[in-house]
Amino acid sequence: MNPVLTQFGAQMSQLTGVRAIMKDIIETLRAGDGQEFINLSAGNPVILPEVEQLWRDCTAELLASNEYGEVVCRYGSSQGYQPLIEAIAQDFNQRYGLKLSDRNILITPGSQALYFYAANAFGGYTTSGNLKQIVLPLSPDYTGYGGVTLIPEALVAYKPALDIDASAHRFKYRPDFSQLEINETTGFVLFSRPCNPTGNVLTDEEVQKIAALATPHNVPVLIDSAYASPFPALNFTDMTPAFGDNIVHCMSLSKAGLPGERVGIAIGDEQVIRVLESFQTNLCIHSSRYGQAIAARAIASGALAEISTQVIRPYYQEKFTVVETSLDQAMPQEIPWLLHRGEGAIFAWLWLQDLPLTDWEFYQRLKQVGVIVVPGSSFFPGLREDWPHKQQCIRISLTASNEEIAIGMQRLAKVVAEVYQLAAASE
Ligand SMILES: Cc1ncc(COP(=O)(O)O)c(C=O)c1O
């Protein structure tokens, strides 16, 4: 059967960004013909024993409690499971000196859902026909933002400024405030901090500057804190989570070991939360209450924040060090390779300046030596202009073992040397 699709149907039945590449990766792994691959493409977090145990313990407590029937046998409020909302309000008020009430908090089935609500409530056409843009102030950013809007023309990303330390082979993206426009055509602003794919952490000053640009136009600023403190605390550099009238602090428990349960959290202005909540009621009523109930226990006891800084953060920080040292040892000095500063998240981001191939061709070459990464061009949603840089980067996941990462980087260095040499020889 081949039913006629609407515009939205056509739009939403396509895979965007990295999800399209994942198909190629899964097929490659399946058709391996005995070839062993070092898979540095995964976005799925590693199952860390201490983290799994925490969720197991919270589940055992829930099963043994009177609460169990109430949690799984009944519908609940769209806003979320009350004990979880209370645990978050209490934790954040104490930790950051805030005055949150339960009306400032919404629980969603994963944070991707939250961005979908926001993208279509604040981005797109207003009732008077004006286009409200979804502004990504610093591209590259999370590939999933490419699929959240029903109105693709609403998504607009800005090229970053580049902070380069060529001799150290390191660089960092910064928002380019000389270009960034936030005005009456802006519906809302969205960025991840720490950033997937780059590991970048916008500084506190950069965040305040963006929020200040948005304030006079009544524009919400959604800060995707899927990797931030207090959980999963995957920031390797100091950062203060930002709060403020127009800031919506968006979190996910996925990287804190609970991706299967789909728990996203929005903390922000009451009216903004109300709009997102109604969107959710219409779409799916509410998030699964089992995940919310075990999260309430892990947050209220302080165990989740503790395990985040004691176990999750050091685990990935060490992996980043392995990428760094392996590349420093194996990569040719004379080639302009630049690793993004590792400030957080679970990825390393490598820029091969003047790469003689596209990122996609380079990804294919790496596959031939048994290494799978993600080509970088999928991480520029909303950036329509031609920019060679978009085809010169790759994302390396920090979810493999130290040994696999080290071998993967050595093989990558060899391929890099070959492709640049070949290009030089043919000039
Ligand atoms: C930056 C960022 N935001 C949002 C998400 C979506 O997470 P979830 O829907 O599992 O909360 C991810 C997942 O990888 C991510 O990396």
UniProtKB/TrEMBL annotation:
The keyword Transferase applies. Its cofactor is pyridoxal 5'-phosphate. GO terms for molecular function: valine-pyruvate transaminase activity. Keywords: Aminotransferase, Pyridoxal phosphate, Transferase. Residues 38-412 form the Aminotransferase class I/classII large domain. Its EC number is 2.6.1.66. The keyword Transferase applies. This is Valine--pyruvate transaminase.
